[in-house]
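Late entry, iron/sulfur cluster complex.
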Amino acid sequence: MTSGYFLSFSEYLKKIFGEKVYKVTLDAGFSCPNRDGSLSFDGCIFCDDSGSFSRLYSNNLSLSEQLSVGMHKIQDRYHAKKFLAYFQAYSNTYKPLSELKEIYDQVFVENIVGMSIGTRPDCVDEQKLDLISSYNINNRFIQIEYGIQSIHDKTLKLINRGHDFQCFQEACQKSKERNLKVCAHVILGLPNETHDDMLETAKTLASMNIDGIKIHMLAVMEGTKIHEMYNENKINLMSEDEYISTVCDFLELLPPDMIIQRLAGNGKREFRIQPRWLGKKLELVGKIEKEFQKRGSKQGSKY
Ligand code: SF4
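Prediction complete; structure with ligand written out below:
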């Protein structure tokens, strides 16, 4: 679907591969240094124990089974022919190099046209990035996704990220030097962040030669630190109107060719305490487009 208001991921992939490309989400049994005690046992304050995994498939399946089941389901439903392997759960570069190679090697079966790896900027090094870029052949789409959430170190400290913005800048630079696509994850509405803070994040990311972005609203998931803060009335959550308006302000500041890979959080509905207004993602995207229409603006209008 072409919105005309922003460059969606599906639109981008369709242009590159000549047809719709479907993501198959994978859980390859990774952990995260911010949860296993290497940095902390607490994790980021918004993270629930799924490590941001949408839990589409059973974690008991092997990687190749997850891939095969995932591809077949999508094939049956949409007659899909091309797929992107998406390593989503936890930090998908957080293992020794030899194990990473074994894992990534498994996904390049027939009809897989690319791979996207979600991780933390402090979980990559030169060798791991060299390995990932070695898959960047045969016109594949090879992307690394870094959680950053905000460019402000005061916020990164508050949300217990365990790394600073400079770490993200260095990881992006090393990734771009290897011709990898880079996608940044951002959360709008983090505690103590002002509207200007969020727009500063947009402006800074816009200046960094980043290829894509995933934008989420702050969600209160059951059992997280942010859930405690919410119960103690220590956080203010955005209303739907505030979120829509902030997303539009944010997108206006980004380059027109930055790929917008998500505009709403994932998080399983049954574990989500707030926001209650979040219904179907497509409906929210429709409301964002309406806001752009009302403003007479679009992604990149103020870049
Ligand atoms: S880095 Fe990701 S998986 Fe690790 S605690 Fe933070 S959100 Fe969770």
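The CA atoms of residues 89 and 146 lie 13 Å apart. Will revisit in the morning.
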